[in-house]
């Protein structure tokens, strides 16, 4: 854009020089026609220069826009690079955390296996020292009512121990054989005596208990009837 005034000046100067020579060699009656052509050429040249200036200004504006766009792309690239680096570090942290969890899981699994082995060992020992009745447990200091294993015919003799309910709150302590109707059972209403029956199936009892009931302090069923 800076070169346009110089170019215009040169063109004007050359035009003036040409016009001066032309005027000297042109008859007087034709000089008016030459002056008119010179003015038209100056107008065309001026319009051309202005158009070029406008195009240069537009190119400069587009160049600035491209430069700004390039800077934006550069900033976006830096941001993406920064985000990628953060994601890479986070991925490494997750992998490290996962490996730590896997090691902790293997450690816990090993401890669980050891604990299960000890429980099986203790269970095997307990089968050898299982008491004959719930009263025996109470004599050993057990005070919590619950389900326990008892071995009426003695440890390592006859049948295996069975699970019973020891009621530690009774005196003497009750040994209750479990059955399939320990919970509340709904009874169908009927008017005549003996019109309703409900079978109660006790859990499988070893033959030893049936033959030696003396080891069980009590064997009874309590029925509670709520009459509506």
UniProtKB/TrEMBL annotation:
<protein>
    <submittedName>
        <fullName>Uncharacterized protein</fullName>
    </submittedName>
</protein>
<feature type="signal peptide">
    <location>
        <begin position="1"/>
        <end position="22"/>
    </location>
</feature>
<keyword id="KW-0175">Coiled coil</keyword>
<feature type="coiled-coil region">
    <location>
        <begin position="56"/>
        <end position="118"/>
    </location>
</feature>
<dbReference type="InterPro" id="IPR036056">
    <property type="entry name" value="Fibrinogen-like_C"/>
</dbReference>
<keyword id="KW-0732">Signal</keyword>
